[in-house]
Amino acid sequence: MNQATTLFPRPEHDHTSCVETALLRAEQLCRKRGARLTVLRRRVLELVWESHAPVGAYALLDRMADGESRPAPITVYRALDFLQAHGLIHRVESLNAFVGCEHPGSGHGSQFMICQGCHAVAEIHDARLDRAIERTADEGGFALTERRLELEGWCRHCAAERSDG
Ligand SMILES: [Zn+2]
Ligand SMILES: [Zn+2]
Ligand SMILES: [Zn+2]
User: Which domains does the chain have, with CATH numbers?
Assistant: First the structure.
């Protein structure tokens, strides 16, 4: 099996275990760094991890609304800032939304493949891409500060469904 088959989770995968793993990793990482994963921050992380599709701040606020009460947007933004600062979530700029990081703690640039069908996002960490970008910038005399890459297309599962239909 090449890597491409495993980048996007299968639609029928056990997502509960994705969420559990993500929360466990977050707890371990925060403990190691002496950072406080408060109830609110943990809840926001859990909601970001509700699926592999990125979620926007407003949608998060909606998900957090509990009957009459709704958290103040600023508290949710701060929680998102915290999670982002610790690499627990990534911001997908083209969608203005957030997605959980699968390997928090390892410093990595943002390379994403975004499925237009199921909206799932897969992180890629390809050193060849990094090198190519650096070389191109270098040759163009461009001082690179951000090497964000957001590719759009169809994941294997959605592509298969499209060709079936
Ligand atoms: Zn999952
Ligand atoms: Zn990541
Ligand atoms: Zn898809």
Answer: 12-103 (1.10.10.10), 108-165 (3.30.1490.190)
